[in-house]
Amino acid sequence: MKKYIKTVLTGIMAASVLFACSKDFLDYEPEGVLSNENVATAENAEALVVAAYAGIANDDMVGPLTSMWVYGSVRSDDAYKGGGGRGDVDVVDRYEQYNLTIADDPLDWMAPRTWTNYYAAISRANFALDVINQIPDADYADKTTRQAELRFLRAHSHFVLKLLFKKIPYITEGLTQEEILEIDNRLDNDDLWNTIADDFLFAYNNLPPSQDQVGRADRNAAAAYLAKLRLYQAYEQNDTHQVTNINLSRLQEVIDFADEVTGGLEPDYGNNYLDGFDNGPESIWAAQFSINDGTTVGRVSFVTGLNSPHGTGLYGCCGFHLASQNMVNAFKTDLVTGLPLLDTFNNTNIFNVVDGNGETPLAVGITLDPRIDHTVGIPGRPFKYRNTVKEAGDMIYNFSWARDPGVYGYFGNMKEQQAPDCSCYVKEGPFVGTSKNIEFIRYADVLLFKAEALIQLNQVDDGITIINEIRTRAAASTQRQINAGASNVYNVGMYPMGMLKADAIKALMFERRLEFGMEGPRFFDLVRWGMAEPVLNAYLAIEKTRKDFLTNAQFTAGRDEYYPIPQREIDFTGGLYDQNPGY
């Protein structure tokens, strides 16, 4: 694989090259590179804004921006790496084992590439802002709106980088090369949150409530992102990443911004993961993709291209991102109440025996949350709500679809897959891409942000009411073919009013895991709550008795919450950047 050697600063200093992207306003075919001599026009500014939108989705399988399946799912208790054994894309194995202990590890080429890709996206936004700032207001009617969109995109990129690396340089427009070289990553944690928030606030105050062109950031998206940011900021961390305080005023801001967000839940949970429902009522902010747009393969996403079921004849390869046994067990519900088994769900396994037909019968006396069959591929059960695909063969998930069941088991990922006869689907060699959007924030997220803030502020019943709204939608999401007709196994109950705050917080945390299982937020939630070390080491203590490959895995508090600042960046700046502790 070609070594990616660009640094953040060289990316920031470079001119922006326009790449084609499409879907509504992204339907633009650039013809060259814009120079300083001809760039400061409204027409060229519009093109640069399009390029900035493209930048936040210009990722790949080994430099992900849009999908956090590696950083947030495999690094948590939701999923195993999968693939053809531990040596297959071994950098992800090192992440999964929490075995990345030195900052200049030559085997760590994925997180540094994500760093570079996101700062390339930031450079696009800043270049566009530099151009737009030069254009007289009278010559550019949409000037303020486009500035707000670009600052939103810049804030989004910095936000994700902060989740991954914590201590990052914040790069804005209007800087000379010399000034860029003087920017360090030493902002106080709270100050860095506020700096990111300033961009989102500018967007919130200057964007329209909605946009005519699908995919553009609007006030709604800015409000949702501010709710998310203030929630993370509320859990104040010390220098070794431990939560030392929960800021109540920040939690009130979460509620205030969440109340500004308009939207709704899809009536069926599965709509969120199917082509044809992009930009629906639940979609607040998403990466946009396209197909059949005049380019060779379309602007499809290959970021999860390694994760298709393996050996099916329907997909490509490579069998990565498999649900953990712990994740599967989390979908159990109490036979009487229909509520999750918050403390005992992992005491016994479900679907842990494959019969002679290659199926996994459900144990007697177990009921399930139906979201399991929208999230996990289980032998003997329909995959993507299909028994068959026209001219493609059987779509019942099969034990043989697991590439290395002796190491990683056989539970597949379903949310990020589409049926092979989908018009959104393209195959390049062994790798699968689709034009399905990838959501950054959906309305269910905003509801649970608010519920969490309410509960922490002792408004417990109000928070539980919101959680039950999410559970009501889950209970109703059984109309598609998800488990070959055995609908009586589903049992989803509602939490009662009058719960103790501690119990309500536990319910909220569990609900987030069920709702967003294998979508990527799990690891970041655990870090935000200050629970990563106890939860993940408790997970590993049991999981390593089930899976030998985890025998030596151990999470180290004060180090493993974040990735190391890439050593090449520290070297390039002459030591201007501080390294995260423990590396």
Automatic annotation (TrEMBL):
Family: Belongs to the SusD family.
Entry keyword annotation includes Ion transport: no
Pfam families in alphabetical order: SusD-like_3 (PF14322), SusD_RagB (PF07980)
Subcellular location: Cell outer membrane
GO CC terms, sorted: cell outer membrane
UniProt KW Membrane keyword: yes
Ranges of residues in domain RagB/SusD: 281-583
Protein name in UniProt: RagB/SusD family nutrient uptake outer membrane protein
Domain of life assignment: Bacteria
Segments forming domain SusD-like N-terminal: 98-231
Record Gene3D superfamilies: 1.25.40.390
Stretch forming the signal peptide: 1-20
Keywords on record: Cell outer membrane, Membrane, Signal
